[in-house]
Amino acid sequence: MERTPIPVLTVQTAPYEDQRPTGGGGLRRPTGLFESQRNYLPNFVQSLLSSVDLRDRQGCTMVVGSDGRYFSRAAIEIVVQMAAANGIGRLVIGQNGILSTPAVSCIIRKIKAAGGIILTASHSPGGPGGEFGVKFEVANGGPAPDAVSDKIYQISKTLEEYTICPDLRVDLSRLGRQEFDLENKFKPFRVEIVDSVDIYLNLLRNIFDFNAIRNLLTGPNQIKIRIDAMNGVMGPYVRRILCDELGAPANSAINCVPLEDFGGQRPDPNLTYATALLEAMRGGEYGFGAAFDADGDRYMILGQNGFFVNASDSLAIIAANLSCIPYFCQMGVRGFGRSMPTSTALDKVAKVMKVPVYETPTGWRYFSNLMDSGRCSLCGEESFGTGSDHLREKDGLWAVLVWLSILAARKQSVEEIVRDHWAKFGRHYYCRFDYEALEPRTAYFIMRDLEALITDKSFSHQQFAVGNNIYSVERTDSFEYIDPVDGTVTKRQGLRIIFSDASRLIFRMSASSHVRATLRIYAESYEKDPSQHNKEPQVQLSESIGTLGILLCSTGWRLC
User: Residue ranges of the Alpha-D-phosphohexomutase alpha/beta/alpha domain (predicted)?
Assistant: First the structure.
């Protein structure tokens, strides 16, 4: 029996002025906005699809996945219907719509897709009262560069219509191929529902020594681990890879069922939100703990008794121990990358290893360019994101497997490895302070006045007496990045005060919210003396924070 072709409709719409991607081709808004504003999601999806040149779009393959949050299934249906209407030839979608961000990057690169769409708001809350997001990945498997984000935004501001196949229905639960005949299309539109884990797992098998990790988790000297998927996308990956493949007991993994509201918790892997994991680790029963965010690209590492490894230290320790990973033994190490606010602990390792360090603005898209050009093998950010050139996205589970590989090779505890690293390279005390929900105008004036203060010639080489210490300003600037690959200049990426003892104060506006602003303040202090390595970061950095207070008072602003 011949199938009736599915109609392709053109729907009239009106543009929205607030659909500027916040970086990496991503739009993140309150879920209620996507649900209540007429055509809000179709408008952005059309702008995103139209940013791909027509000749590249026709008949191409794209990958679609989500972190499973509320509104994901409805959004996937719209994405599928619009992709078909806009000439996409094939969509590859994770079963039940589930694909981690690293898995999407992996599949794009494996099948040489034209790009991908990820429905996630990262570590933001889910549920009807939470947030929702749409993120665009380009052909290298990485976040869209700024030029693509700008193109999406320009299209969104003048959009008058979108095309859609509203009668097209896909069964996301059924593995395999589904084909649909469309009106005025010579070839059928094809959807392939794939196992969410398989392709990504095969990649990891080629990077790590799974036998060594398996022996760590099941052998005579095994350690007990505790892994918290925080009811995000990582549950199936943790179960399949760490438990089924590597032998960790099933009860090692908690919160492994993806839930639309993440169980009512914020899926943010840090000491504030991963409290269940922290309490379990403090009991001393487990030797290694980790948590992941909603879409699986961020992670947190804990040792026995709740010993916390901050993200900057984790990046540096991974760099210093890459010889434990077969992938790097084979491929070599060409360079490291870190975002500007990330501590300079990585730089100390790079100096010993005699490899370059690239200091970039915040945003993984800057690392993608470096990796594509063969300049960078490992990179990371202070916000618990780490990855390598195996993908073009940060990869939380990859980082956890690196840590397990290091534990297996060195036969030490997490705390022993960290303290050995500090003894060799020195300790970088580091804190980040977030001032959230600021009025954008207020935040703008704070940054404007701070920049005027610290870039004035009179500020250079100024000294601040705080307690028994004197802090001398060595240099200040508004961070500017020149991409060594294509020469692209990115300006005004944060204010830096660097002191003569290598301490740093950094002020940066976050672009993750569209209504309120967040001012992030980073403080870093370097300590070489091992006898001074046991302080709490907040205590050690009190003098730097005092200097910060002086600066803020000088501008006439108070953050409270």
Answer: 23-162, 200-305, 324-425
